[in-house]
Amino acid sequence: MVNKVVDPGLVKVIEEDIVPTLERDVPNQPSAAALAADPHLHRFTLVFDREGYSPQLWSRLKERRIAALSYHKFPGEDWATDEFMDSQVTLVNGQVATMSLAERGTPLSNGLWLREIRRLNPDGHQTAIITTDYGCDFRRLAVNMMARWSQENFFKYAREHYGLDRLAGYCTQDVPDPKEHRQSGLPRPRWSGAQCQRQTQQIDGRVRCIEYAADD
């Protein structure tokens, strides 16, 4: 999953770092002969959120035989409700559910032709999904896209409760002067350890003196 605002830096990272790594490491990719025999066959699929919408990037991915799947950032007008049909789908957790789905072909601004799949939600809102995967069943594509919600919920929870964003942040903190540090009463681990050891030795010495006196 790639989840970041698209800019030239991100596009460069995807094409020069992420994609070459996936091309090398993703298992069970089709052979060169299979790709040559089927112009719609792809090596694997990259799933983006709306911030990953980039017609130019998608065209270049298609040339590398990599499919893309995302929400449509500019879906336009709603489709007629009579285009939608209730479909039984199996969610990623194995649960069977019903989605009201419809499909059309649609071009991007650069002329790249896509499949557009829409889900009609109970409140009337239409969720638009686009993809360059021309062979997968439209129901499976809808399920795969909707499955991102579990990932988004995980990261949302991690940000709220575990300070996830702090891991990628930068901050500075003033370090006090050593003399001021000693006078401030702040804990000094090395000094505290030595002081504790000294006190232990003093107590041990007193115990030995008491034992010696008792023996006399």
Topology diagram in text:
Elements: H1 8-25, H2 32-37, E1 45-47, H3 55-63, E2 67-71, E3 85-90, E4 96-107, E5 113-120, E6 126-131, H4 138-146, H5 148-162, H6 178-183, H7 189-215
Parallel strand pairs: 1-2
Antiparallel strand pairs: 2-6, 3-4, 4-5, 5-6
Entry summary:
This protein is of the alpha+beta class.
Describe this structure in words.
The chain is an alpha+beta fold and 216 residues long. It has seven helices and six strands, in the order H-H-E-H-E-E-E-E-E-H-H-H-H. It has helices at residues 8-25, 32-37, 55-63, 138-146, 148-162, 178-183, 189-215; strands at residues 45-47, 67-71, 85-90, 96-107, 113-120, 126-131. It has a six-stranded mixed beta sheet. It starts with 7 loop residues before the first helix and ends with a helix.
Radius of gyration, taken over Cα atoms and rounded to an integer in Å: 30 Å
Q: How many H/I helical runs?
A: 7
- Series of H and E elements: HHEHEEEEEHHHH
The fraction of residues assigned to DSSP E strands is 15-25%
